[in-house]
Write a structure and sequence with these properties.
ten-stranded mixed beta sheet; alpha/beta; 17 helices; disordered N terminus; D-Maltodextrin-Binding Protein, domain 2; 2 domains; about 15% strand; single chain
Length: about 375
Amino acid sequence: MINRMTRRQLVQRGAAGVTILSLPGLLAACGGGGGGGGGGGSSDTLRFANWQLYIDIDEQTKKSPTLQQFTEQTGIPVDYFEEINSNDEYFGKIQGPLSKGDGIDREIIVLTDNSRYPGLMIQEEWLLPLDKDKIPNFENLIPAQQSPPFDPDRTYSLPWQSGMTGIAYNEKLTSPITSMEQVLTDPKLKGKVTLLNEMADTVGLVMQLNGDDPATVTDETFEAALAPIQEAVDNGQIRQFTGNDYTGPLTKGDLVAAVAWSGDLVQLQADNDSLKWNVPADGGMIWTDNMLIPLGGDVDKASTFMNFVYDPVIAAQIAAYVNYVPPVSGTKEVIVKSDPDLANNQLIFPDDATLAKVKQFDAEALNNPDYIEQWQAVTGA
């Protein structure tokens, strides 16, 4: 049976920011440094950097059942860091040491395929290959995730979870918001909405508002999408660009609406049922967060952990809490036995009709330096 918790603690964690779920993790974070580009770390501990609200937590013990079970089964302790708020911000922190061939005191980090960073890190040789001999559960990877453009053979990456990008709003503060046009132009929302600072998320939604396909970006369609975003920034319509940190203000009612990630809202709705999320009428985006082993990481420990979480029973345990789309075959079959309603949630197990409404962003466009520069100018990065 998969135990479900109220999401209040998750909301509080999201509002509070970075959390380290073990005391040794705090000590490791203060230690700095971290080994060269070899395949083995110096610590006996698996150090795992992830996004907020992205692991199962027992409300009474304040610990993760998955991480505890992994340690009990393997003898490997885990320091878990909730230190990733956006791909841009996190890459900015780790780029310096990695570019020098140094480690970052992490065995696993999680970055998104609709950012340019997983592909860039492979290109720069800042990632270590998985040891697939230690990941027999690799065979449980769903077919749709087996050959992404940035890593066609899954040599360096394995999906953590997938999700969709759409619009969240507080129905107590506004009428339904179903389109990006409302987000960008409705005067009732002025200064009360946020956009995501990930180019693929926000630009991809506006491209579809324009009737363009974000899977095939051209200079013309990119500039056409950027123009209304820039206008909304200039006239004060948009309060700011965010990473995961929209969750706290949205829950508190400080924001009326936000471009938001699907799994976050499944969690936040359990604590505040006035929050709603939808795929915009013109279309949403879909993406995958990937586990990666950076320079200096311990490949053995990281690969052992990846194998553990690719057991459908463990994957179901995680999915039941984080409420994103799991990449592991058999997960739904486990969940349906204990929580049929959850198994039928289209934000966690989307059917073909739901998937038809979302698009992936053009992988080549993610690495276009002109697009990156223009986007950074709009966001103020």
